Amino acid sequence: MTTPATERKAALDRSVAAISSGGFDVAEGICAALILNNQNDFDALFILATIQSMRGRHWDAINNYNRTLEAARSHISALNHRGTALHQLGRFEEAVANYDHILSMRTLIAEVLFKRAVAHRAVGDTRRAFADCRSALELYPDHVDALVMLRSCE
Prior knowledge:
Elements lengths: L3 H17 L3 H14 L4 H13 L3 H14 L4 H13 L3 H13 L1 H17 L3 H14 L4 H10 L1
């Protein structure tokens, strides 16, 4: 039995396969149909924007990367590709601000790594807790809790 979710995934897979074989029009049509069905389908919006960028339609791509980000605010690939499209258009200051936004996310990633370290330690896996604390500190050296835990795992 097929469900709407499996049909959607199959359509996304067909669009990616079409891109791989140079069928940009086919892939764009598949994505457009998915977006018509759900305007917030961030996967379809992202793939559509990527096709548009590959075709040199950077303004359209930026618009759809922005729509992707409205549906999925921390979609790092959409942020990264939007930066590339801005760069291609010579909008360097906006590209820098876009990349700065991505880099600011590293404190959030460091916090997630720390929380996973706490969970690892809670189940007795100090080796993984130590590794996650070390990774968190590489991203955000001022993470005091991760530093304290790292020292306690040594």
